[in-house]
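Supplementary notes for students who missed Thursday's class. We covered one full example, reproduced here. Read the sequence, then the structure, then the short commentary at the end.
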Amino acid sequence: MSNIPTPGTFPMQVLTPGQETSIEIDPPNGNDTQDGAPNTSSGANQGESTQTLTPNRLDIPLPPGHPALAEYMSKIPEMAMFRRFGTLNLQNLLYLQAEILELEQTLQTLQKKDSQGNEEQRRYATNWWFLRNAKRRGGTGEQWSLVEIIRKKLYEYNEALMQQHSIMHMPKPTTRDTLEVQKLLEAWEMGPAALTGDDSHIWGCLTDNQSPPFHDLVALLPRHSGDPLSSWVISKAEMLTNMRFRSKGSNLQGYRDQIVAKWTNVFVNVLASLFPVASNVILYVVQPIGARFGVIAAFSVLLSGYLSAFTTAKQSEIFAVAAAWAAVQVVFASIGDNCDCG
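Structure (token representation):
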């Protein structure tokens, strides 16, 4: 889904007096009942303070800032984009790697030392049981203790390594979705300043070209990249929506990318069906064989451009379609020319 719904458009439920939740707070020298429960019957006379709290309800609008931003991201998953902190994560891997390397060298030194020790120590390399129970059998147990440390450190390292592998394969957010986050953070619905901390410039600033988004943003659910025509139509539709977005006091009217893609697909398919009809009609009308080959060349070029602009076909697929198209048209033109001469 594109565009951003207005926060707080859900109706709030009005609580009746019976739905209010009261919390009685005893004075510093509060009087307790015999069973330990606070005495609230005489709270007004003893100066007790009473605080009425509204129950936490899901339909209450979240305040501007991180709560409202999280709500928007949950409703429009394409807007859920975060930093992967590539430099810090890679530094962490480098430090873990260095720690494990040092532990590995220490372990190898101990293994070599024990292999040259007494009969009990020499068994450490050939029998795991003696290594595991070395301390119980009068040994230092230093080698096994180090193995347990390495085991934990390797688990931490492998977890970080696999996480980085997954994060590295996460796609970047589209420019369009990044702009939508910027517009949201600067919209009147989010207040005069949606975020005021150091994280306020993570997604960049719409009005400040000197504050671009961070380069290591990743999208949890990237927008599906459709054909160029659908992307162009969606971008034009967003321009109108952004105008409504900036007008105060108006509810935003969202739209679904699937609807735009559906109608653009209809247009593309109808236009594609006209290619063979138009080509055959022109070849039928044009009589000179040289002119017919010129028409075939022109339609082949138009077909290739059409497939490149309006579809997501690969270059090899476009070449194959254009070659097959030209071959069929050449056969049609040759048959028509032979019939005319006969």
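Commentary. The first strand starts at residue 21 and ends at 25. The two ends are 61 Å apart (CA to CA). If anything here is unclear, bring it to office hours.
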